[in-house]
Structure formats: structure tokens, C-alpha cells
Automatic annotation (TrEMBL):
Family named by the database record: Belongs to the metallo-dependent hydrolases superfamily. Hydantoinase/dihydropyrimidinase family.
Organism taxonomic ancestry: Bacteria, Pseudomonadati, Pseudomonadota, Alphaproteobacteria, Rhodobacterales
Iron found in the keyword field: no
The Amidohydrolase-related domain, residue ranges: 47-417
Designated name of the protein: D-hydantoinase/dihydropyrimidinase
Organism: Marivita geojedonensis
GO cellular component terms, A-Z: cytosol
Catalytic activity: 5,6-dihydrouracil + H2O = 3-(carbamoylamino)propanoate + H(+)
Subunit structure as annotated in this protein's UniProt entry: Homotetramer.
Amino acid sequence: MTTVIKNGTVVTADLTYEADVLIENGVITEIGPNLKGDEELDATGCYVMPGGIDPHTHLEMPFMGTYSSDNFESGTRAALSGGTTMVVDFVLPGQGQGLVDAMKGWHNKSTMANCDYSFHMAVTWWGEKVFDEMPTVINDHGINTFKHFMAYKGALMVNDDELFASFNRLAELGGIAMVHAENGDVVAELTAKLLAEGNTGPEGHAYSRPSQVEGEATNRAIMIADMAGVPLYVVHTSCEEAHEAIRRAKMQGKRVWGEPLIQHLTLDESEYFNKDWDHAARRVMSPPFRNKQHQDSLWAGLQSGTLSVVATDHCAFTTEQKRYGVGDFSKIPNGTGGLEDRMPMLWTHGVATGRLTPNEFVAVTSTNIAKILNCYPKKGAVLVGADADLVVWDPEKEKTISASTQQSAIDYNVFEGHHVKGLPRFTLTRGHVAVHDGEMRTQEGHGQFVKRPGNGTVNRALSTWKELTAPRPVERTGIPATGV
Ligand SMILES: NC(=O)NCCC(=O)O
Ligand SMILES: [Zn+2]
Ligand SMILES: [Zn+2]
């Protein structure tokens, strides 16, 4: 059976043109005028774009004494509803647990996915077992990205010596280092002080994680990555200090990418000062929401290319789970949702305001990350041979975001009441029409794991440069005799 998307305008990261798109067996087989297929999808007035890729999700994540409430079924259903066709989740090994063992657990959880997905590996502890298993994770299991938490002291955090050892190993193996960049030692000190002073409400979370803790850790990670010769991806870049470090590194030729979240771009710190405890606690995440100056910096980064990708860090906890932290903000599970709303919110606040072009929208929601993660052009492209992960985007379709109509399993939405204009008319996952003009037609288990090999082009360039500039002894003649 073939499907044809007719009468639309194809929008990719670099081109805009009128064409029909023909799909067979989940793959794009032809792009051009007057195509015919068994099933026709009318894209009149719409943009045909690569489906979104969200490179930062935590589905059914064990964290802070509970599990995030969206699993791979509800999470990927939410993703498709908003035009996202691939998610990348983080495998989190327990202390002392092997990487491959932990990965098996994630494969078991993800069999229910409605769209394609991939994994990043987290380095939550350091030892011989981790060192030894890294090559198999990259070469046999297709995971080339390894995340390091510089925060969450006493739980997921790793120290600088561990970072440097892991980064060196990744450089050698052709992997990419990722960091959650916040100074965990300082956060722990500030948290203890705030609690001792009676600052126990959700606003204490924001006070305990000022932008300096993020700027310092981002800069430190960049310098450590540079010394190791490994490419670095900084997740949830939320403030000017972190962006400034990334911007400077890029200008110096370092291979560093920054990832702002849709939440940080569109919601601000005033949320934490809401008189309603639940309202504020539902928005507790790390890093916390910032002020308008930081938001402007993030938008400017997307416009200029110093920031590369917009993600969600989707990690959804119910109100009941958030209430674990009544009387002590440090016990509020950290995380917010966003999978369903990332694309419509970014279109509304980015493209419709003139901050981003439609092509830049495609770049930051899909193509850039496909290239960074080494799965382009299978993903992130409208090209013959690419997977038919597509969104037919209707720029005139509008709605008001509400938890009562969302796909996510939780009981609220941090974007509640926000009006968006620009929504999917159709979302296709490997050719299957999962969203059909407002109707959900997802297929549980349709999603497949996407392997991403190591040694992408940036790794190869870095290792060539490293080899060229490696310290070498100077060849000398006439060396004087040692003095007595
Ligand atoms: N971001 C957050 O608050 N929760 C999810 C875990 C993480 O990415 O730090
Ligand atoms: Zn994080
Ligand atoms: Zn995260």
C-alpha cells in the first residue's frame, strides 16, 4: 500500500518548495509533482516537514523515590499528537550496575512505543565495568551519546575526575559526551542553607539553583571536553551564563552544542512565586525557569545558531507525586512535561513572531539533532530513502492547551491556558498515519529502536586534529652533556 501527501509545501532545514510526497513501506520513495498513491492525504495550505525529534525525554524514569508517570506508550502518543516522531530517552544504570544490563531494562520498557526512539546512556558512576562496556554500547548496541550529571549530589552526580576519565574514553571510542551542567556541590550547600532558614516552599528550588551554578558547570564541562578532545552536548541550557560559555567555545572552534527547552523559552521564574503550592511545585525542574533576559538570550542563540536544538526534558510527575515535597522543596520530584506542546509552542512563539523562519524551525526541532546524533538522513529529512516520519503542519490550526484534552498521563499541563496556532493536520511515523486531522490512530508497539553508530564526522575531525597536534618530543642534535 502506498500513501501520497498531496498539494503541500515541503519545508526542510534548507529548502521550501511545492511537491507531493509518496511513501511505500514506511519510506519516502518519490518527491515531485502529480504523484498518485492508494491513500491520499490532503496537505492544501500546509507545510510537509520532517517529524520532530525530541532528544531529551525521561519516560518511566526512576527518580527521587518514584517513577515519572508517562511511559513509552503515553509519552510517544503525546509526542505524535504534537508532531514529534522520534524520542531519545536516557538509560540510567544504578550504582554499580553494568551499562548493558541497564540498557536491557530500557529495551523492556520501550516495546510499547508508538513512534521510533533511541537511547542515550548515562554514566552515573565510574569504574572498570563502565570503561569496559562502553565499546560494546557504542559498537554493538548503537548508542553513541553518554550523559553525565554534574548535579544531584549523592545520587546521579559524577565528579571532575570521573568526567575527565569518561570523556577521554569517549574520545577514543568515537562517542559524544553530554552533560547536565549544574554545580552539584554548590546546589547542595545552598539547599541546606535555604531549608535551615525556613525557605521550604517550591520557590526555594529556584533560589538553590541560580544561573551561576549552571554557567560555572557548563564552562567546566567545555574545558574538560576540550582537554579530552571529545564533542560535547549540553542539555537543557537555560541561562545566559551557560549560553555565553557555549557561544565562546563555538567561536573558538570547539565542538559544543547547546539545547534549550521549550519550557525555558516560554515560561519564566514568576511561576515559582504563585501562591498556589501545587502550581509552583508542578513547575519544579532543574535548571529552574529563568527571567526574561535569559529567555531573550536563548532565543538569540537559536536565531544565530549558537544554540542548536529545542527539546523538552519531558519528565512528568503527577500532582500527588509533586506533593512528596510539601515542607521540603528538595523532595519535590524534579521534572515537567512538554512532549505534546514543544512544536506548537515553538511555532507560535518562534515562527509566528518572526523570531525563527520555518526552515530554522525544522532545523532546531529535527534536522540538527539528527545530524548531531548520527541518524541523518534516515531521520530529520524529507528525502527519497528517508523514513516517512513526517508532519503535515497546518499553520492556521489553533487550540488552547489544556490537561483535559492532552495525551500525557498526568493531571495538569505547565502550558495550561496557552493559546497555540500551528498544529499537525497529520503525523506519520514510518508511513503510518498516527494523527489524522485531530483523531489519534496510534499503534502501540509500532515504534522501533534507532541504532546510532559512533565515530560521526565531528568525532573523526576531532581525532584527526588531536593526532596532528599531539605532544611530540623535539628532535635535537648536539645535546649538551649533563652538567655536574
Ligand atoms: N530536569 C529535571 O528536572 N528532571 C529530569 C532529570 C534531568 O534531566 O535532570
Ligand atoms: Zn538534567
Ligand atoms: Zn533530563
